Amino acid sequence: MMGSRELCIHLLDGEVWWGGDITYGDQMPFGRETVEVDLAAGIRGNQAAPLLVSNKGRYVWADDPIRYRFEDGLLTVTCEASEPMLRESGGNLREAFRSAADAHFPATGTLPDERFFSVPQYNLWIELQYEPTQEKTLRYAEAVLANGLPPGVIMIDDNWMEDYGVWRFRADRFPDPKAMTDRLHELGFQVILWTCPFVSPDNAANFRMLESNGYLLRDERGETAIRRWWNGYSAVLDCTNSGAVAWYQEELQRLMNDYGIDGFKLDAGDPEFYRASDLSAVPMHPNGHCEAWAKVGLHYAFNEYRACWKMGGQPLVQRLRDRNHSWDLNGLASLIPNGLAQGLSGYAFICPDMIGGGQISDVENNPSFRIDQELFVRYAQCSALFPMMQFSTAPWRVLDKEHLALCVEAAKLHAGLGDTFLALARHAAVTGEPIMRHMAYVFPDSGLEDVTDQFMIGDSLLVAPVVEQGARSRAIRFPAGEWLGDDGSSVQGPCVLEVEAPLSRLPHYRLMIGGAIGNGERLSSDTNP
Question: Whole-angstrom Cα distance, residue 469 to residue 112?
């Protein structure tokens, strides 16, 4: 067995890097402080890739998990299974990313269902927790409309089914699933169901069948692997086994055929639930099992993932992992830096976490928990100009009329920009370019590498949400050009300007291009907007 391969790179003057594990987004760009990340040891519940990209037009790639360390002007990259490579691809971040994408994770030309980019998502997780029912689902959807929010994608989360691995509606909770889905469609919603790769060993019939067919992961002794996850102990579907995947997809297709289900939230699949010593149809590193689970979702135009490995350029919706109901880097403050890291790791079709936070521990058996209404509104505003946005906690239940109206306004702003998001999504499907872009990606050589609290949608829409508690103004870094604000103001860049941002305002500005307002893309006929 060969030892690890090591690549040592001396950083150039002013050189900084992005990539790897997107959960480290708040520490990016890398290069100025000592940081060490081992992607083989885990990916912290979100997306990752064996990729690093530099603002000096360089990138690092390996075909397998890497460990990387930045210290004293040196980047050291090691890989156990393949040779890490350094490529010089141009003079800036955009050129580095485009070269890496073309070479290693080319876009497929396809995208998730187009409706994702123009309507909100409504995930029932925080509101219904482990007790979703047909009645509660319909009541939630009707309340969306009654409170002035637009219909969208509704997600019925965990425990709608009979058991893990038994993908049939629980009759005691969903007495007539077809009638429910028909009604949701009539109201203007699309319907997604939660699923996972786990199989309960307590469901004898299903477990015996899957085990006898060799569809379950085995441990190093050859025994069916039983793994601890957040809902207990379960066997794990072997997604490197084509027969196992075919069985699973047949189960999901039956739900689509019989009940009109539109797609699936494919949860879990994190590398931590696998072992390097596991026995599978195709020998695989734990990260590879995560990748195999992600490939299952390519069958569905309506899909959602949270944990993914090396799936850049693919038509999969990637949500940020569950965040707290807080202002800090465990909550709201993490959304922008991690969203920027998603795009620079190859994941273009992104969604922030649930508005207000999706961490179940905030609310589950916690009688002292209270919603911060200002935080909830700022969460909604920050999410509104991501490519997608997702509600869960019912805003009409936890907010007064004033704060609810501001969340409705944010949702309508997102829907109103649906054409812009969709145009950029189609562009991403061809080129792999992020929809949500770092300031340094669009404006190289402008000293914007450290800006992590504002972002670009395409090349001409600058978004600067308020992410600090109590703030009613904020500083914005404007690149060169004339910028037309949502408040009617005009700003001539480059400059740093303190702007008014009352709770009713999400500051955003469009770049004037040739006397016209940019619509997110540069006004050209090529594929490099």
Answer: 35
Q: Residue 22 CB: number of other CB atoms within 10 A?
A: 30
Q: Are 76 and 397 in contact (CB under 8 A)?
A: no
Element (H, E) at 163: strand 161-163
Return the number of other C-beta atoms located less than 10 Å from residue 397's C-beta: 12
Cross-strand bridge partners of residue 462:
456, 509
203, two tokens: 């469901």
Per-residue pLDDT tens listing for the chain (529 residues): 456 899 999 999 999 999 999 999 999 999 999 999 999 999 999 999 999 999 999 999 999 999 999 999 999 999 999 999 999 987 999 999 999 999 999 999 999 999 999 999 999 999 999 999 999 999 999 999 999 999 999 999 999 999 999 999 999 999 999 999 999 999 999 999 999 999 999 887 899 999 999 999 999 999 999 999 999 999 999 999 999 999 999 999 999 999 999 999 999 999 999 999 999 999 999 999 999 999 999 999 999 999 999 999 999 999 999 999 999 999 999 999 999 999 999 999 999 999 999 999 888 778 888 999 999 999 999 999 999 999 999 999 999 999 999 999 999 999 999 999 999 999 999 999 999 999 999 999 999 999 999 999 999 999 999 999 999 999 999 999 999 999 999 999 999 999 999 999 999 999 998 766 666 554 322 334 4
Q: Return d(Cα 428, Cα 415) in angstroms, integer.
A: 19
The DSSP element (H or E) to which 148 belongs, if any, is none
Residue with tokens 């050859």: 222
All domains of the chain, ordered by start, with CATH?
5-104 (2.60.40.1760), 114-197+241-424 (3.20.20.80), 433-517 (2.60.40.1180)
Q: Which two tokens stand for residue 441?
A: 């990606």
Phi first, then psi, for residue 236 (nearest 5°) are -130, 130
